[in-house]
Design goal:
6-stranded mixed β-sheet; about 15% strand; about 210 residues; Rossmann fold; alpha/beta; about 45% helix; single chain; 8 helices
Length: about 210
């Protein structure tokens, strides 16, 4: 990554940490890639990441062997570095309002990773967005969300997202998944936990594994 790209990554990571609380779940996705590969195997070969600073995640995924990756940036990338703008020009990363259907066919990707995006949506929009994310995935959906104890959005940053982050509990999410007919993937969760234990990995975010629609 170029110096310009690295400066952008530092800038946006700082924004994420300030806006979403004490920790960025997009940073967490980057930390978890090797763990996710052990849990999902071949499903990590065609991945869509949805979330702020998706260019950094996509770049990291593309550096992995035998991995195709695309990204959806829910916000603008006007201040992004050259490498990110290049990904946008190539169509690898798209700037899309995730409150509406994504511009992809059903099951376009084996796995969809989501971070620093759903915490800013109201329940009304979550009812639309989560099923649509499941629609474009063939093998599953992995959702990274903040812990309620890390609630701390700064008023100065709220305008970037349109609203302050609403960090919800594990029980809230599990109940909500059931309401919109999304089934949690216990097998994938178990594999990830086993891999995490072996690699001494502890997540700073909540991680949910959901099955795709049949």
């Amino acid at each position: 990554m170029s110096a310009e790209g690295e400066n952008w990554s530092v800038k946006i990571t700082t924004l994420l940490e300030n806006a979403a609380g004490d920790y960025s779940c997009t940073v967490e996705v980057q930390r978890a890639i090797s763990i996710l590969k052990k849990a999902y195997g071949d499903s990590m070969h065609k991945v869509l990441h949805v979330g702020l600073d998706t260019c950094t995640v996509v770049s990291k995924l593309l550096s992995e062997e035998e991995t195709e990756a695309w990204g959806v940036e829910p916000y603008d990338v006007e201040d992004a570095g050259r490498s990110c703008k290049s990904l946008v020009r190539k169509g690898i990363v798209r700037v899309v309002d995730i409150k509406y259907p994504l511009p992809y066919m059903p099951k376009s990707f084996s796995l969809v990773l989501v971070s620093d995006a759903l915490d800013y949506l109201s329940e009304r929009y979550l009812n639309r967005t989560l099923p649509d994310l499941a629609r474009v995935s063939a093998d599953g959906l992995v959702v990274f969300t903040g812990y309620p104890r890390k609630q701390g959005a700064k008023a100065a940053e709220v305008s970037k997202f349109g609203r302050a982050a609403k960090l919800r509990s594990t029980s809230w999410w599990s109940k909500f998944f059931g309401q919109i007919s999304l089934e949690e993937n216990d097998d994938a969760a178990k594999k990830l936990n086993e891999a995490a234990t072996k690699m001494s990995y502890v997540s700073n975010c909540q991680v949910f594994h959901l099955r795709s629609f049949n």
